[in-house]
């Protein structure tokens, strides 16, 4: 029987497909499932008249979730220690322990080091871009130059902690975010931001006058290892160009 050219082509394709090496499903393991307790921490949350949306599980991991960890410091319990270079924030507990939160760091977040205190905080704070932000990117910030009321679309998120040095506002903020994907990353703008669920948790623990220590690049990793142990090295990601996001 004579086979048509089309029929021969189909037979050849089928033969080659049968002989081709099959991909090994074990070569690319699926992303680890997010633990149930982590999903519960970052589920939708009622906050007064607003509902904080759940964090998309693709942005979550056991390592990034808030948790209690070993932490060696001479600072008193209740102190906040921010490590912008490792993108972590620690709320000091007793007995060499701390609550650890993952943060996103903007250019302003690496512009302040040293000690400060928190005289007050705000729930669902309003926000206004600085004149420098408007000058740098008028197309992005010009339309909101008069500021935004507090809410889910506000860059400060559900809470903001305002840092002062003496009686002077440092303009350094620890706050929530409208960009959950940014947590754990270096970002273009903003100070120190947390998932809204985390800033609500942290703000509930903070009292007026809370002492804050912001580590320098040379101090990054301090407290995460016992005294006398070399500090861990944290590769530094470049801060994205200005204006990439609010």
TrEMBL record:
Signal peptide from the UniProt entry: 1-20
Gene3D superfamilies on file: L,D-transpeptidase catalytic domain-like
Principal EC category: transferase
Family the entry assigns: Belongs to the YkuD family.
GO molecular function: acyltransferase activity
InterPro entries (UniProt xref): LD-transpeptidase (IPR050979), LD_TPept_cat_dom (IPR005490), Transpep_catalytic_dom (IPR038063)
SUPFAM superfamilies: L,D-transpeptidase catalytic domain-like
Assigned keywords, A-Z: Acyltransferase, Cell shape, Cell wall biogenesis/degradation, Glycosyltransferase, Hydrolase, Peptidoglycan synthesis, Plasmid, Signal, Transferase
Catalytic site: 175, 191
Cross-referenced PROSITE patterns: LD_TPASE, PROKAR_LIPOPROTEIN
E.C. number(s) listed in UniProt: 2.3.2.-
Keyword set includes Hydrolase: yes
Lineage: Bacteria, Pseudomonadati, Pseudomonadota, Alphaproteobacteria, Rhodobacterales
Protein name stated in the entry: L,D-transpeptidase
Segments forming domain L,D-TPase catalytic: 78-215
Species annotation: Thioclava litoralis
Pathway participation: Cell wall biogenesis; peptidoglycan biosynthesis
Keyword Secreted: no
A Pfam family recorded for this sequence: YkuD
Stretches for region Disordered: 218-246
């Amino acid at each position: 029987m004579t086979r048509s050219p089309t029929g021969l082509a189909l037979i050849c394709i089928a033969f080659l497909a049968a002989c081709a090496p099959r991909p090994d499903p074990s070569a690319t393991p699926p992303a680890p499932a997010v633990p149930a307790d982590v999903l519960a921490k970052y589920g939708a949350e009622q906050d007064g008249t607003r509902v904080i949306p759940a964090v998309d599980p693709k942005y979550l991991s056991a390592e990034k979730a808030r948790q209690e960890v070993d932490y060696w410091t001479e600072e008193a319990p209740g102190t906040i220690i921010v490590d912008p270079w490792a993108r972590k924030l620690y709320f000091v507990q007793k007995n060499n322990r701390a609550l650890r939160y993952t943060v996103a760091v903007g250019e302003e977040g690496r512009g302040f080091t040293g000690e400060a205190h928190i005289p007050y905080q705000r729930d669902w704070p309003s926000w206004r871009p600085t004149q420098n932000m408007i000058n740098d990117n008028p197309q992005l910030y010009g339309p909101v130059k008069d500021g935004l009321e507090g809410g889910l679309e506000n860059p400060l998120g559900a809470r903001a902690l305002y840092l002062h040095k003496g009686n002077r506002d440092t303009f350094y903020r620890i706050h929530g975010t409208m960009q959950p994907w940014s947590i754990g990353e270096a970002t273009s703008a903003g100070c120190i931001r947390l998932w809204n669920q985390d800033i609500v948790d942290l703000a509930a623990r903070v009292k007026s006058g809370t002492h804050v220590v912001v580590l320098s690049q040379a101090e990054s990793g301090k407290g995460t290892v016992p005294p006398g142990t070399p500090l861990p090295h944290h590769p530094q990601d470049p801060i994205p160009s200005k204006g990439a996001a609010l």
